[in-house]
Design a protein that fits this description.
About 45% of the residues lie in helices and about 5% in strands. It has one domain (about 10-115). It has 3 helices and 2 strands. The relative contact order is 0.11.
Length: about 120
Amino acid sequence: MYKADGTEHDFAMLKNSILDQLGKNVKILADSGYQGIKNYHENAEHPIKKPKNRELTDEEKQYNNELAQRRIYIEHVNRRIKIFRICKETYRNKGNRMELRVNLVAAIYNQMLALAP
């Protein structure tokens, strides 16, 4: 169940909502907050965490860098949506309407992209 007060981590919300509905061909590009997502979705990627007592290898660093380069577009969209503040601060209205409002903000953002030169 979704908690509108912000006390539930994004990964927990993902596991409890749509993760089981995603097809196996859907690729998930996650950040380091989603460590362990491969246990739930085999076609997911997240950065390699630095192990204790050793540094990351050059290949691991390169993988993390390439993943970050692919994810930067996602982070830019997240930033633009947070500008509307509905996804940044505590949502104080009824929780069952939040999804509608987030979808409206996403539609406005997509329209802004379509109209941009």
